[in-house]
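Escalated from tier 1: NAI holo job.
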Amino acid sequence: MSNVLTLQEYQAIAGSLTLPTMAFIDGKFRPAASGKTFASSNPATGEHLADIAACAKEDVDFAVAKAREAFDDGRWSKLHPNERKEVLIKLSKLVLRNRHELAVMESLDSGKPITDCENLDIDEFVHIMNWHAELVDKIYDQTAPVGSDAISMIVREPIGVVGAVLPWNFPLLMLVWKMAPALAAGCSMVIKPAAQTSLTALRIAELASEAGLPRGVLNIVTGGGAEVGEPLGLHMDVDMVTFTGSTATGRRFLRYSADSNMKKVVLELGGKNPCIVLDDAENIDYVAQQVCAAAFWNMGENCSAGSRLIVQAGIKEKLLERVKAHAREWKVGNPLDPQNALGAMIDKGHFSKVASFLDKGRLAGYDILVGGDTLEGTYIQPTIFDGVANTDELAREEIFGPILSVITVNSYEEALQVANDTEYGLAASVFTANGKKAIRAAQAIKAGTVTVNCFGEGDVTTPFGGYKQSGFGGRDNSIHAHDQYTELKTIWIDLSDSAVDGAID
Ligand SMILES: NC(=O)C1=CN([C@@H]2O[C@H](COP(=O)(O)OP(=O)(O)OC[C@H]3O[C@@H](n4cnc5c(N)ncnc54)[C@H](O)[C@@H]3O)[C@@H](O)[C@H]2O)C=CC1
Ligand code: BAL
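Tier 2 regenerated the structure:
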């Protein structure tokens, strides 16, 4: 069932929103200790949205202290799993009750199209939250096969205080990817949303409190990367940091960890993902739709965007004809208008970066099959460049915009070689009617997720993360995500007759 309203209804909601502006620490909205704020604006219109607390190290220290206090006294970490589950499911219900408000807030803050905010971000938030909540009272610990003279229990304990540093491209979704498993496992959190997109994280924290999440368990500290992200990464009392964002910033978190308390670090980073279409692919119209979705969905502001189309020469002409037709269906414009599939780029700086790749493509003399221009404001046309070599800058850099580079290959083997010729390894898609080739390709491609005859990222049941410089230390989603917010402990109990208190009369 679609939950989408009309443009007029969304505009009315936008006009009546009360936007959160303060950090959320120890169960309360609070200004930054310095009293400073930063301006947050609507990327589609440039209009001022809110002045948000510009937090810094002392706010991070306060939030971590409160998260630690909450963790250590067990108000959440030691609750019966069933009680944690109930609070998180209540949060999901509150999200659904406030869905239109949250969807509009997300769209205004990020430039994302409202239909995606409604049908993807909100629905997935709820689904993922419920899945992890439901998991925690159904999983069991283990015992090891150590013989009859001992019992050896292998138990999982929540890891402690988790710092999460989030990107701006999927504010709600990245929040729940981190927050659902960490909270379900019993951790306390200090979360730093991207400065461009703080609003929905703050509102979720408020709803979580309404759902019964004890104070101090979920803290949202707003502000810049250097001011908030860095002190969180360097903090001596944070047990783990989970990060999604650029590879360059991810690298910093490894250094922060090494320079502080060797906290666990999980990184979900960039991608330059291949979409391989082999000569024997069938249902070309569907393949073309998927190629476009891979390249253009979320304005290409997506770590798993299929930004390299690696096509075998024999099918190229037929495929590109359909790809061009489908690319033109991706309407760009006002994110609040449900007619539009693409909204605005996140900010002027990022818009200029993506636009510079349009210039580079023109200068390089590639064939522009579709688009190639910016539109008034911070909009970029879905663009397809043909004739790109895999060694060219467009095929190597993560552009994070709706630009597809077409690379032609002559064989299956060449397709795989080109697909793997990248520093990244997040995701890949392969289109072929030959099952054996599909499986061999999926095995050969060095990427965390390989989809066959479709584009996608899996779902909450499947781990998401990268090989090579696309990821480090763990995965989002699935039971593996749950596990990474826990420590493994062995408890060995000696039952032998010589054990201290073990003799049986
Ligand atoms: N993998 C992904 O999902 C994402 C990839 N990117 C890529 O990164 C490029 C640059 O975008 P940015 O927003 O600058 O990404 P970024 O990786 O710098 O930002 C992500 C998060 O890290 C924080 N951060 C920034 N500098 C930090 C520092 N020194 N210490 C600690 N935290 C810090 C930011 O405030 C934000 O919360 C994009 O063009 C895109 O290619 C950006 C966002 C998400
Ligand atoms: N596509 C979900 C993860 C990301 O873009 O960062």
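The chain has two domains: 7-269+466-489, 274-452.
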